[in-house]
Amino acid sequence: MNSYIILSIIAIYFGILLLIAWITGRKSSSNDAFFLGNRKSPWYIVSIGMIGTSLSGVTFVSVPGMVRSIDMTYMQTVLGFFFGYILIAKVLLPLYYKLELTSIYSYLGDRIGRRSYKTGASFFLLSKIVGAAARLYLVVLILQHYVFSTWNIPFWVTVVISIFLVWLYTYRSGIKTIIWTDTLQALCLVAMLVVIIWKVKDSMELDMGGMIQTLADSPHFRIFEFDDWHSTQHFVKQFFSGIFITIVMTGLDQDMMQKNLSCKSLKDAQKNMYTYGFAFTPVNFLFLSLGVLLLSLAAQKNIALPALNDDILPMFCTSGILGHSILIFFTIGIIAAAFSSADSALTALTTSFCVDILGVEKEEARKAKRTRLMTHFLISILFAIIILIFKAVNSRSVIDAIYMIASYTYGPLLGLFVFGLFTKKHPRDKYVPYICILSPLICFATDYLVKQYTGYAFGYEMLMVNGAITFFGLWAASIKYKSIKD
């Protein structure tokens, strides 16, 4: 019965998304509409949609579960996020709008050289497709377990179906469609989060005051860690990691910036960033509070929890503990969270590959559109392949895996942009790809050796170390007084 309910919800949900795609794309399916929405997106619509894109299915499932391991210390990172959004609005957005960029990585071509430009775009493509695949993987796994496995449908078929549905409503108008579908999905996600919290409250037979008191009294309601410097949850590490994670995964990410660049003006884009950054903090607090309440409910009713943190919320929502209707709300929430992230990632990957790697902006309009459609299709296939690979090798919390991957693959991007923005030096362009590849390798070796000999384990702060190594590598490769672009 549960599988048929979920399948019906999926069908209705995607029917609505396809309707939105038809409405937004019926008058324009050009590359300009696909890449930048004709630069006519309302900033407040973009702001709401970016919440859903940032949270993803990983946040919906993993963040409540991580409370069991690290309490609410993830909020330290979230506080860092907020200051990162301010820096993006003040430093990066004015640059992007001044240069009228379609792809933000073309800045590197103007500032350093063609190989730097291609290197930056390549690191984004690698980072985004791995991160987006990891996010979608978690949700596809849940759909497989609770729906398609009951009909003996293989996992790879579930993956193909999921990717096909995303491709179906994005291939015509891209970002012009995404800003509206993501807004719907963000609203669904937050609404479902509130409903699930309310259901947990009712299951514990609490009023609002009692729920707040339960949160405050829980040993897991610990936000700050100042004592143990070796801990990856130490405030300094988490806070500054949050700032730099935001800068690279939002400000240096074509996916997130593409939405901002579709706004009508710089002022509108900055309004969007401030609003989105402000709203992101309480939404994450609600996810962590849900985790605390689930652990309290389990203790109250002697409910055995699953071994994996990522399985805690799905277990409560599919087992009938919170009532049978919660399955509907959980399904809507998880699908909204997952596909609001996947659709924009697919669009951004297509944009970056077409503009940065293939240079379609130099092609005749009809040929450029054919190139974009073919690229969108091929990246969808690659997306599915990477999800299958991720399933085969992943053995840790998905959200942790994504941020650790980001610390290695986004680090060179951080170093490139910081060097370009805050120095006037010009490194030899031909050396830049080697510097950017060597930096993550040095970080990996450093992490291993430091842990072996000192016991200190790097966390997300490795992103800053990686960026610094890239920065000083570029500095060392610079030639004074003149630019050499090989």
Automatic annotation (TrEMBL):
<dbReference type="Pfam" id="PF00474">
    <property type="entry name" value="SSF"/>
</dbReference>
<dbReference type="GO" id="GO:0015293">
    <property type="term" value="F:symporter activity"/>
</dbReference>
<keyword id="KW-0812">Transmembrane</keyword>
<feature type="transmembrane region" description="Helical">
    <location>
        <begin position="6"/>
        <end position="23"/>
    </location>
</feature>
<feature type="transmembrane region" description="Helical">
    <location>
        <begin position="273"/>
        <end position="300"/>
    </location>
</feature>
<comment type="similarity">
    <text>Belongs to the sodium:solute symporter (SSF) (TC 2.A.21) family.</text>
</comment>
<protein>
    <recommendedName>
        <fullName>Solute:sodium symporter (SSS) family transporter</fullName>
    </recommendedName>
</protein>
<dbReference type="InterPro" id="IPR038377">
    <property type="entry name" value="Na/Glc_symporter_sf"/>
</dbReference>
<feature type="transmembrane region" description="Helical">
    <location>
        <begin position="402"/>
        <end position="422"/>
    </location>
</feature>
<keyword id="KW-0406">Ion transport</keyword>
<keyword id="KW-0472">Membrane</keyword>
<feature type="transmembrane region" description="Helical">
    <location>
        <begin position="373"/>
        <end position="390"/>
    </location>
</feature>
<feature type="transmembrane region" description="Helical">
    <location>
        <begin position="43"/>
        <end position="67"/>
    </location>
</feature>
<dbReference type="GO" id="GO:0006814">
    <property type="term" value="P:sodium ion transport"/>
</dbReference>
<feature type="transmembrane region" description="Helical">
    <location>
        <begin position="235"/>
        <end position="252"/>
    </location>
</feature>
<feature type="transmembrane region" description="Helical">
    <location>
        <begin position="178"/>
        <end position="198"/>
    </location>
</feature>
<dbReference type="InterPro" id="IPR001734">
    <property type="entry name" value="Na/solute_symporter"/>
</dbReference>
<feature type="transmembrane region" description="Helical">
    <location>
        <begin position="312"/>
        <end position="339"/>
    </location>
</feature>
<feature type="transmembrane region" description="Helical">
    <location>
        <begin position="153"/>
        <end position="171"/>
    </location>
</feature>
<keyword id="KW-0739">Sodium transport</keyword>
<keyword id="KW-0813">Transport</keyword>
<keyword id="KW-1133">Transmembrane helix</keyword>
<keyword id="KW-0915">Sodium</keyword>
<feature type="transmembrane region" description="Helical">
    <location>
        <begin position="456"/>
        <end position="477"/>
    </location>
</feature>
<feature type="transmembrane region" description="Helical">
    <location>
        <begin position="431"/>
        <end position="450"/>
    </location>
</feature>
<feature type="transmembrane region" description="Helical">
    <location>
        <begin position="79"/>
        <end position="99"/>
    </location>
</feature>
<feature type="transmembrane region" description="Helical">
    <location>
        <begin position="120"/>
        <end position="147"/>
    </location>
</feature>
<keyword id="KW-1003">Cell membrane</keyword>
<dbReference type="GO" id="GO:0005886">
    <property type="term" value="C:plasma membrane"/>
</dbReference>
<dbReference type="InterPro" id="IPR051163">
    <property type="entry name" value="Sodium:Solute_Symporter_SSF"/>
</dbReference>
